[in-house]
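Field: COMPLEX_INPUT
Field: COMPONENT_COUNT = two
Field: RESIDUE_TOTAL = 780
Field: MODE = joint
Values follow.
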Amino acid sequence: MHITTRIIPQSQPSIGIIGGGQLGKMIAQEAKRMSLKVHILDPDPECPASSLADDLIVADFRNQTAIRNLSDLVDVLTYEIELADSDVLIDLSRAKKAIHPAPETLKIIQNKYRQKVFLQEKNLPVPNFALVEDIDGSTNNAVLKHFPLVLKACENSYDGRGNRLIYEKEEITNVASEKSFGKWMVEEIIPFRKELSVMVARNESGQVSSFPVAENKHSDSILDTTLVPARISKCTERMARDIAERTVDVLKGSGIFCVEMFLAENEKILINEIAPRPHNSGHYSIEGCSISQFEQHIRAILNLPLPKPQLMSPTVMVNILGPKEFEGEYYLDGLNELLTIDGLKLHLYGKRISKPRRKLGHVTITAASISDAIDRSKKAKSNLRIMNKI
Amino acid sequence: MHITTRIIPQSQPSIGIIGGGQLGKMIAQEAKRMSLKVHILDPDPECPASSLADDLIVADFRNQTAIRNLSDLVDVLTYEIELADSDVLIDLSRAKKAIHPAPETLKIIQNKYRQKVFLQEKNLPVPNFALVEDIDGSTNNAVLKHFPLVLKACENSYDGRGNRLIYEKEEITNVASEKSFGKWMVEEIIPFRKELSVMVARNESGQVSSFPVAENKHSDSILDTTLVPARISKCTERMARDIAERTVDVLKGSGIFCVEMFLAENEKILINEIAPRPHNSGHYSIEGCSISQFEQHIRAILNLPLPKPQLMSPTVMVNILGPKEFEGEYYLDGLNELLTIDGLKLHLYGKRISKPRRKLGHVTITAASISDAIDRSKKAKSNLRIMNKI
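Field: COMPLEX_OUTPUT
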């Protein structure tokens, strides 16, 4: 008898995840260790999390009926994708379905302008910013003091999509007419020494717990490398963690959040972005910490205790991105050399198609020192190549 | 559209595992991180690994047709269960299917007498032993020098099944007449200071790599706790690792092996048992080492490089066994208290029914020191209770 269906004993606690990409996959991985059931909703039947889902609902993220069906099947609902229809989620939460983080939180965060206004009102440090439509003929806006500025779409922009550099005030009106992105905002560019991020979890009991501070390097607006511990002073570390915890404190809802920050030239810390979900810059925690961001997220949404994550060893994560040269099926070259490297864990998300700069996986290296880990990560990058399978 | 089947793109490398218990589940867990496909064969459609399998063949382990079908579907076949029909596996290996470890190796190990003879011939240290039918009227056998002895079934005995303590030579004939266990052997009992084990992997290129030495405590012949690093001298550690590596060297085949040893009162190390698979005493490696026994097993059977596993921090593993009081469905009590413990990872295998002493899961604790880890493990044991769900 050959079976490819799953049997799901209804007595198990179960988690529903809107979004079956690599974040959903890694949440599912931790859930499975603890024998929790996982239901995934995603439009792609071959999405990364499909190989771990007990149950896969193939539907678009804006399919209200499908999302309601999912919420009926599970004990708690969460989402990895910020494009989830926040109105649908708000409906569900009014119907008293457990959804984390709270849809009201998602609504604030999804709009970058709304997000910055919210943080500023709570006295949290953000770069100067303004809504494009609020910029009048005068030059009073503090944000216009230094060019270039970054012009951002208020909604639906991530990994650099929708960001433009603006060198003159006149350019603003030209670019902002791209109606497909809705409203626009401008923000001052912070000359930063480092980009930092901290994962922070909060559960319904109000317990808040933050992870160590990560140092991130981006390449063309996509995360390339994460180093933990960040190479900063102890004081800066405490400050970054404190700002991150305060940020999550003021947002409603449970789950894990990523607070991305700039460490400015003048040592000031400014909040850059917030994501109400596990984050690329937190993947290092799977091997590097006493608890991973994914398990912490699960614990937070189930209102379980949130221990304080300890960094177990210096850790470096390097993203594996689709090369710019092709789009299509691929294979990995240099695997044998890559796998000789000590302390290396290879994560492949199982995406069938490579596209330029698509996140296909990552490599995490733990070592006795951060410089060892960095050296090995360079070796890993030089060994591993994504090749077109023609 | 609601899908509960998996789509398996045939281009992915795939692993077949005979046995879908917790070992198969944990192998599958590591395989999934690297986007490998996993096909499982097990008679139980709800076995622990079913929740991670891309494909589940429900069949008995002695079903030759089903095992051949499995081997046709995958690139490499391995097995977690020692009851696999070694004759079937030998057939398959002659048909040039890749099976690891080699069925010839399994045949040696499956029979405890044959195993001990093999090791002794290779000058590896074992306790005195003899086949019951070889024990004659005289008292010449070295093994009969000190009573009590342990009487073991040569085949199909694990976790203490089939073991008896013998206080007088006359008892031997009485007990050995239980024909269901086949042949019997007797072995001297080693007054040991500690029970140790070392996981050792070998790939087809002949590379051998051992894990740190674990210290194990058993309760009623079932593993209760594993502590790493073992509390032994550096010299004893080197000796144990050396004996374990030499043991795996002389066995044919690739994969990971567990070499269980006694540290005798006189500081001698003697081999107790060998298992040609990942082992309960190696679960600590998931969190405690730079690579887990499960990933090392996968690398070994795919002939990938085998790095030397580093112990990242002191680690203690505690088994979660079904209580003696009932057999039936269960739930966990004390979870909230348990999950307040720092550095704790909960593994639940997803077995629906608890039986007395059945392995339902384990808890692994990493800490700054072994004594910290031990303290927390005691707290974990006192917090967690398996309750009958009536």
